[in-house]
C-alpha cells in the first residue's frame, strides 16, 4: 500500500493573494491555476488548493517541514514583514519560537487567519511528547 497525501482545499477571500503569500513566505515556486484553484505544490508533491469564498472561513492549520537553513530564511521573512508569531498553536507564547523535538518551530497566520507552522523536525522525532 502506497498512499500519499495529495491535496487539500483552503477556503480564502483572495486565492491569488493568499497563494502568493504562502509561496513568498516559504520560498516555493509560484502558484499555478487549475480550474477554480490556485495550487501551491510542496517538495513532496502535495498540493494546497486555494479557493475563493465569500462565506465564513473556518480557520485551519497547515504545517511545513523545513530545513534549518530554510527556517532561518522563512523566520527572517516573518520578522521583516512584522508578522506576529508564536511558539505554540494556542498562540499564547507571542514573539517566541519553540525547540520541540530538538529542532525549531514557529507559528504565524496567513491573511485569512489560517494558522501556518514551520518545523525543522517532525512531531515526535526527538521524543518530545507534550
Ligand atoms: Fe501543527
What ions, cofactors and ligands are bound?
Answer: fe (ii) ion
Strand order of the largest sheet: 1-4-3-2
> Helical stretch count?
2
> What class, by secondary structure content?
alpha/beta
Shape descriptor? globular
Q: Looking at the chains present, what oligomeric state does this protein adopt?
A: single chain
Strands, count: 7
Structure commentary:
This protein has helices at 15-26, 68-80, and strands spanning 7-12, 32-34, 37-41, 47-52, 61-65, 105-109, 115-119. The longest helix has 13 residues, at 68-80. It is an alpha/beta fold and 130 residues long. It is globular and about 40 Å long. The model has no long low-confidence stretch (mean pLDDT 97). The chain has a 4-stranded mixed beta sheet with strand order 1-4-3-2, covered by helices on one side. Strands 5-7-6 form a 3-stranded mixed beta sheet, with helices on one face. The termini are far apart. The protein binds fe (ii) ion (FE2). Fe (ii) ion (FE2) binds at residues 61, 63, 89, 117.
Question: Which structural traits does this protein have?
Answer:
130 residues; binds fe (ii) ion; 19% helix; alpha/beta; three-stranded mixed β-sheet
Amino acid at each position: 500500500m502506497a498512499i500519499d497525501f495529495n491535496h487539500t482545499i483552503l477556503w480564502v477571500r483572495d486565492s491569488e493573494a493568499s497563494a502568493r503569500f504562502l509561496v513568498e513566505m516559504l520560498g516555493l515556486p509560484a502558484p499555478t491555476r487549475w480550474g477554480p484553484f490556485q495550487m501551491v505544490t510542496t517538495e513532496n508533491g502535495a498540493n494546497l488548493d486555494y479557493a475563493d469564498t465569500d462565506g465564513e472561513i473556518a480557520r485551519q492549520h497547515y504545517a511545513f517541514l523545513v530545513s534549518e537553513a530554510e527556517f532561518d530564511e522563512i523566520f527572517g521573512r516573518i520578522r521583516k514583514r512584522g508578522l506576529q508569531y508564536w511558539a505554540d498553536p494556542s498562540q499564547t507564547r507571542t514573539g517566541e519560537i519553540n525547540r520541540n523535538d530538538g529542532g525549531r518551530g514557529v507559528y504565524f497566520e496567513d491573511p485569512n487567519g489560517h494558522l501556518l507552522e514551520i518545523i525543522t523536525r517532525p512531531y515526535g522525532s526527538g521524543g518530545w511528547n507534550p
